[in-house]
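> forwarded from #structure-qc
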């Protein structure tokens, strides 16, 4: 198993390249204050989780399986250093994948993303069009993970933790 680490938003990179963290927040976990989805003149950066949990793309399928033993974890957000490397959804993890297979080989890199300075209304349009509750936020370079936008289950607003 990889070492645990925390995403350091001020450095915009994981505190450890070998961290094993996960998106553990489910939509119903939004008990903290929310940003309303109709918030006027709000930027994505004001509504996103600015230090999302992530797992190293160099982790393994065994790491993913261990993460997915938590029933609240639906998606693993993968990084390679500070860069977004894709997502692995629980239901996309093949039962027959070898435990030592790199998690990055299973990552879906073709996911919608948005920049932190984009208007929240643009993010709402993307989420409504895809039906998703999560939207990856990347720096303007299009590679560096900046945050995660998490729409509540009732789609009324965005959770911030």
């Amino acid at each position: 198993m990889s070492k645990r680490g925390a995403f350091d938003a001020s450095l915009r990179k994981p505190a450890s390249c070998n961290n094993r963290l996960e998106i553990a927040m489910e939509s119903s976990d939004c008990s903290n204050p929310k940003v309303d989805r109709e918030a006027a003149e709000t930027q994505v950066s004001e509504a996103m989780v600015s230090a999302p949990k992530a797992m190293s793309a160099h982790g393994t399928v065994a790491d993913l399986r261990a993460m997915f033993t938590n029933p609240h974890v639906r998606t693993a957000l993968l990084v390679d250093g500070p860069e977004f490397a894709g997502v692995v959804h629980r239901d996309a993890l093949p039962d027959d994948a070898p435990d030592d297979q790199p998690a990055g080989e299973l990552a879906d890199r073709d996911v919608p993303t948005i920049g932190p300075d984009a208007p929240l209304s643009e993010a709402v349009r993307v989420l409504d069009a895809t039906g998703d509750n999560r939207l990856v936020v990347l720096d303007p370079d299009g590679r560096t993970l900046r945050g995660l936008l998490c729409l509540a289950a009732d789609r009324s607003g965005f959770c911030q933790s």
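QC bot note: The helical segments are 44-47, 61-67, 120-130. Residues 1-32 have pLDDT under 50 and may be disordered.
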